[in-house]
Q: What sequence folds into this?
């Protein structure tokens, strides 16, 4: 149930990427959620532990596995920051709390953070993007790293992330607009068929809604 940034033979089916562990950096992981089947979820959770995960940031407004993780992997620090996946924007506070949790964990070189939503397509990649910005990454480099690690990542809320980050850093309105334009242009230049990917994952048995 676990995987790495660069599998020997990368999956071609979006459903195979759904719960694949994708390392964006050595200690920052992006993936989808635990399986709805408890037996498969426990096997997957064992994989997370084997992959060195010490902290989980769960971004699904529709579900939480906090109790399951507390029971079967109590050593993992679990943060639930549930939100919607309805398009539009994400709240500034959501990014602030996600970044704060990730940076607090990453201060310890022995900890590894796993960020996930349902499918690992929109919410989790967008939060990982925000975390990379807070770590000092260039926006385009961060987007490229996320897409390279997880080709199904649509990163829908990246414009919300960079808008919040730049405003939080005291950027001018023109600088914020330029940052948002950079993100939107990157997504326009690097399109994926997100609806087909979501449909394929749902066809493969995904539940709990959202991407």
A:
């Amino acid at each position: 149930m676990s995987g790495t940034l660069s599998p020997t033979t990368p999956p071609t089916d979006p459903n195979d990427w759904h719960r694949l562990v994708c390392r964006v950096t050595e200690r920052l992981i992006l993936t989808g959620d635990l399986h709805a089947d408890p037996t498969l979820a426990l096997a997957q959770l064992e994989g997370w532990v084997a992959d060195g995960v010490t902290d989980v940031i769960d971004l699904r407004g529709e579900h939480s596995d906090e109790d399951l993780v507390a029971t079967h992997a109590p050593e993992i620090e679990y943060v639930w920051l549930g939100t919607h996946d309805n398009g539009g924007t994400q709240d500034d506070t959501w990014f602030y709390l996600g970044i704060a949790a990730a940076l607090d964990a990453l201060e310890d070189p022995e900890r590894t953070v796993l960020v996930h939503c349902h499918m690992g397509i929109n919410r989790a990649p967008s939060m990982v993007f925000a975390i990379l910005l807070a770590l000092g990454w260039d926006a385009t480099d961060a987007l490229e790293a996320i897409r390279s690690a997880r080709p199904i990542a649509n990163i829908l809320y990246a414009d919300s992330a960079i808008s919040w980050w730049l405003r939080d850093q005291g950027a001018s309105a023109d600088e914020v607009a330029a940052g948002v334009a950079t993100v939107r242009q990157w997504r326009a230049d690097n399109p994926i068929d997100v609806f087909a990917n979501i449909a394929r994952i749902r066809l493969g048995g995904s539940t709990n809604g959202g991407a």
Remarks:
- The CA atoms of residues 3 and 91 lie 31 Å apart.
